Amino acid sequence: MTDFLQLLFSGMATGAIYGLAALGFTLLWQASGTINFAQGEFVMLPAFMMLAFMSMGAPLLVSFGLSALVAVVVLGWVFKRGIVDPLFKYGMMPIVVATIGLSISMRSVIRAGYSAEASPFPSLFADKLYNIAGVTITLADVGTFVLAIALVFATQAFMTKTVTGRAMQAVAQNTESASVLGINVPRMIFYAFAINAVLAVAAALLVTPTYLAKFDMGESLGNKAFFAAIIGGFNNSRGALLGGLIVGICENLAAAYISPAYKDAVALVIFMVVILFKPQGLLGKKEERKV
Amino acid sequence: MKKFSLIAWLVAGAILLIAPPFLKNYGIYLLSYWMVFVIATMGLNLTVGYAGQKSLGHAAFFGIGAYVVALMMKAGLSFWLGLPVAAAICFVVGIILGFPALRVQTIYLAFATLGFNTAVWLVMRNEEWLTGGTFGINNIARPSLFGYSLESNLAYYYFVLGATVVMGLLLMGLLRSPWGKAFTALRDNPIRAESLGINTRAYTLLSFAIGAAYAGIAGGLLASLVQFIEPAPFAVGSSIMMYLMVVVGGPGYFLGPVLGAAVGVVLPEWLRFAQAWYLFVFGSAVVLLMIWLPDGLLSIPDRIRAKKQAKEASAARALSAKSMGAQA
What we know:
heterodimer; A: two-stranded antiparallel sheet; B: mainly alpha
């Protein structure tokens, strides 16, 4: 039982990070109908950005802030203007292919230009252990979980409670009537890309201490985040968190009780089951087919 | 135009027939490797380019084909039995993979197939008793045909070339048949296709199954070409590469895979000087290509033609405006 709880808790921390990355997917999808296949690399690159700022002597949190700024410009504005805007009119697949190309070049620029080795990354949290009823929990696990959840709920609150957030939702639901109502549509869409970029930097800050900074760390993270987003419901932000937690926990339990070799297949199996019975995801709404 | 394309075909065919004996062994090997990918991506082009199903799991079938042929040959069975069995197994698995496609579309399907690829790859890597795990299967023999040994690289090249031509002709026949028209109808507007009486479910499954069978045959040829197989070339990255090859060449163009596979297989050899930066160059090229030519390289002639027509139309309009001005 204590083993089980132990696995459950560490799975929750991983799952919250998956949820955080998945939230970026659902945001871009809702705001602009864009699927970003480079989402994992959007987490990988800020990790190296932060390492670069830290090697110049900036403390962890300062380099986090600087990286977030750079990310908003590069992963938000440049990405939107350079790739999404020109391709938008051709439908979804050219964007998918372009972001696949982008993920390949982001990955290889780090491998070729920096290093193929994994680099250590400082943790936000002290190396401390808690022992509650026989279950050992690290401060990093708790902190990661709490911060990730807080970020998801903060984003959710921003979307539903603030005027800007509501305007963004209006754009997502009906672009034309939103612009009739005087909402600056391109700006709202840019906000979504900017938030996605900041969430990616936050995910990098939380995930890299355990997984180390490596050129290909985005590959599995991006995949799991996507599976998590679909499991929870692609058009629902809370769904992303739910999906992330489900994937993280199940993966941890499967690695311990079934087989560590097939750990990476867990997200896939849940995903398959969910889309076969509820293609719109656990919390998602059905979308109409257009002729 | 017709005459020109006939000459182009003859020249290309002659080069492929005559040039290889003058090449070094590695060049011959590379050309054979390219042909194998042409067969595989021809299948993917049917699924993606003609039928419009977003499949990112093609390398799984490629791998299944390779492992089936390799394992059957290790069990003492003939290559000539292995190849059709590999194609048949891939056909059946393709139908099974097609079922999620009946429920989910576009990007969901892309990820479902990608997940399928991961699962197949995990089995190849972890089930050592069957696949040898990461050590792979080595010393795969090359077959002989009508008593001629295909052991030498050159002989095997001509065999792969022949296979590519046969598979190409089969695909061309399929695309010209009513079936082929049904596939494109499915891609262009699934709901209208359905209302025209096309059984969209059956054609969706068929497009996966036939595409998979092509990949299976390509995989079988690869096993005997490389004579050593391991899980790495059949991972998700390889599927994505094949998808890019189809899109870069031009999805829905018959010769798209020929060009796309050349970009994906032969071009890297020329980009050797870029070494570690090659993938960066490749990835960035894909992004730029998408922005400039979202329909692939083979859409260039169509674009030029469309531009020309637009020009002629505006010239005609100007002319008629002028003549009307003269009348008034």
